[in-house]
Write a structure and sequence with these properties.
The chain has a domain of about 130 residues: NADH:ubiquinone oxidoreductase Nqo5 subunit (Beta Polymerase, domain 2). It is about 20% helix and about 30% strand. It contains four helices and 13 strands. The longest helix has 13 residues. The chain is elongated.
């Protein structure tokens, strides 16, 4: 961890000691904020001279439904491809989430101080609502609409919270981990009715096993090609 990131973490922890928890990984600082404290912490990070994070770069949602489970095995797989969906998914070391399935992530930039910080707010699926930050950063408008569309996260105070990427009559939220990969319906243009129609899904869900060219085979192939 660089001295600048370490110093920033210390300042944030001292300023919001009762409200936030800081984590550092790969040289990046993440600040976990309770949902009810989001606006007050975000406003201070934007306005106070020692922070001055004047730019909001991104807002995104995260679904942690299967967090800590992996169905891909790249270690014991054969040279024909990855092992997927074979037996039960194995566990990987992860940080417990205390039953909170969703997170909203805010990426902030301070041009003046040349620093970045990531705010993370955990949300329960039963209460999937958080304050909008449009009043602090106007550019959050479409970011929040995207998170609402794809994850179903509600942003309190948003002036126009409508779907952004999916169709008007779309059902569900496609970036949730339990959303079916083939979707719920399929659509096509009916030339006779002269409109788009929705029909039951006709494709069959199947597990794909991509082929992998391992390093030793790649070297052998190149050598043979040169000969």
């Amino acid at each position: 961890m660089s001295k600048a990131v370490e110093a920033l973490s210390a300042r944030i922890q001292a300023r919001f000691s009762d409200h936030v928890v800081t984590h550092t990984a790969l040289g990046e600082l993440t600040v976990e904020v309770p949902a009810q404290q989001l606006l007050s912490v975000a406003r201070a990070l934007r306005d106070e001279e020692e922070f001055f994070f004047e730019e909001l770069l991104d807002v995104c949602g995260v679904d942690l439904l299967t967090y800590g489970e992996a169905e891909w095995d790249t270690v014991s797989a054969s040279c024909t491809g990855f092992s997927r969906a074979v037996g039960k998914p194995h566990k990987i070391k992860t940080q417990p989430q205390d039953g909170q399935r969703f997170a909203v992530i805010y990426h902030l930039l301070s041009v003046k101080n040349n620093q970045r910080v990531r705010l993370k707010v955990m949300l329960d699926e039963a209460h999937l609502i958080i304050d909008s930050v449009i009043g602090l950063w106007a550019c959050a408008d479409w970011y929040e609409r995207e998170a609402f569309d794809l994850f179903g996260i509600m942003f309190k105070g948003h002036p126009d919270l409508r779907r952004l990427l999916t169709d008007y009559g779309f059902i569900g939220h496609p970036f949730r981990k339990d959303f079916p990969l083939q979707g719920n319906v399929e659509m096509r243009y009916d030339t006779e009715k002269r409109r788009v129609v929705y029909e039951p899904v006709s494709i069959e869900l199947r597990t794909l096993v991509p082929r992998v060219i391992r390093a030793e085979h790649a070297v052998k192939s190149v050598t043979e090609g040169e000969g």
